[in-house]
Amino acid sequence: MTTANVEVLSSDAGAIEIAVTGEVDLSNCEVVQDDIFAAITNHLLTVRLNLAGVTYLDSAGLRILFALAERLRLLQTECQVMAPFGSASRRVIELSGLSNLVELRP
Amino acid sequence: MRRSRWATHRALLETVADVMLLLMPRSVDSGGHAESRLRRIEAVTDSALAHLDLEQLLPELLKRVRELLDADTATVLLLDSGGEHLVAAAASGIEEEVRQGVRIPIGEGFAGHIAASRKPLVIQQVDPTTVVNPLLWEKGIRSLAGVPLLAGGEMLGVLHVGTLDSTPFTEDDVEVLQVAGDRLALATRTGLTRGERAAASALQRTLLPALLPAIPGLQLSARYAPGEASGVSGDWYDVFTLPSGWLCVAVGDVVGRGLAAATVMSRVRTATRSYALDSDSPTEVLTRLDRHMRHFEPQTMVTMAYAMWEPSLSRIHLSLAGHLAPVLARPGERAELIEVPVDPPIGIGTAPVQRRSVTVGIPQGATVLFYTDGLVERRDRSLDDGLALLCETVATGPTEPLCSRVMSRLVGTSPTDDDIAVLAMRRQEAEELREISFELDAIPEVLADVRATLRRWLPSAGATPEEAGDMLVVVGEACSNVIEHAYGPLGGTLSLRLEAREGEVLATVGDTGHWRSPRGTHRGKGTELMHQLSDDLRFEHGPGGTLVHIRKNVTGGDPA
Fold first, then answer.
1. Which residues form the STAS domain (chain A) (predicted)?
2. Domain count within chain B
3. CB pair distance less than 8 Å for B447 and A25
């Protein structure tokens, strides 16, 4: 069984920071996506997704990030993804071309 | 031949005797002819009855009793496991009693009164004031006689007969009934003991893992032997993985014997697994289990060794609750008991304590042997001698012959009082792991297991952390593809083969389904990733399924 945790680290009128920790694969990607999407309202200007604590991410997790980027573009909300160099998700995200759609931060 | 002819003759004679008895009416019988009385008693103590199982004996004996006493009903009620009710076990005449599961509280009504007083009882008035079971008065029973079923001073139930006419049962009748009752009581007790033993051993069989989990990197073997004196009791062993990749081991002993100990064991085992799922350390699991047992099983004591293997398999974290320390054999060293402080057992008799654990390094090729006290405790040998013999016997090497050797040297041919559980775990050497393959159900839940295996194996195959991370994603993608696309709703299997070579690792992911291209939004990223993160990727589609061959160069040194 794969487990991940989605937690809102900080939230004010304009911005929210959501941290994902654990592993994301086919078995839990829907739950993780629902948790992330549920934390975001249409009033926000910036959404920051912190993936520093993710220990495994594959295309199932990338699907979440692409879907999020697409939704936020529609809402005209800025999307930032934080994946430190050397972290499990960084390489997969770099290779995926997601950085064309979101602001990828270390 | 001779024997079977004799048996036929005997059966015939018995039938004749039965028919003769049948022909004798109750009124004549109650006249008190010594001879007929003897015959009547012989009919229920007939040695042929001894060969019947309890299930066959009950109806046969009830039939005979009914005929002998010219009664319209005969019923056996047995004490249920709670000890406060009688439950209809067999009936002749009013069979509905059994079908409707008639229950009589001890001390109430006719049968309940016999059970409470342990004395025979005859009544002439059958109505709601004297009898609990409405079936009896509804059917028009007017006269009842009953006796307690006693065996070895233990009250097992009640046997009673009833008639539609109001002629009272005589003292002679009650005497015959009591002889039948004694016969039934003995047979019932033997049957119950036998049934209990069978149930305990069936329970043990279902609870001990028939197949130990296949953990690439670990070799496992186990033995369980019931005690000859007491049969199965409460020993068990259990091995299971956690979602985090940690591997848990429990070996324990519920103090007590027979079915009672075996059922408690089944609950302890389940509780241990539950707490293991939410705990990071052996002491936490044992502390929670202790609290659980004190509350839900207050009369129970359990000794237990609980260990958690790190996903790398290079160390175990071990805690003991009143249990003997496992034996560790490192390559090239003498086997010895692991030095670990022993904390009190789980459950009654002690105050809750701060539990302790030790962390022990397990080098490649080393063996850890867990066991219960039955293995080393003998009447004719001191515990220290038993432990010394065990340490002398345990050595590195394949676990299956090790278990056989341990059982042979420590148990040998002498009968054992207590049951014995032994579990041997050997960390395999990198050389043995150059090539591993396994098969899994193609369901999303196995992806975490696949990663746990890869995380253990890749470093030993020479992959640097970065290379291992890449390989984790490539193999994960290939497995996800099988799970998502290869099969219909019936599902199928996923096979994985890993091979370490000079400067490279190979992985082959296979299915036996039909290829279809990925569907849905934001899909197709997976294949792209697989190409980017591997050095060679080849899909082999065939009529029997698809194989994905993955090759990745590794620079982390020679696999060794």
1. 14-106
2. 3
3. yes
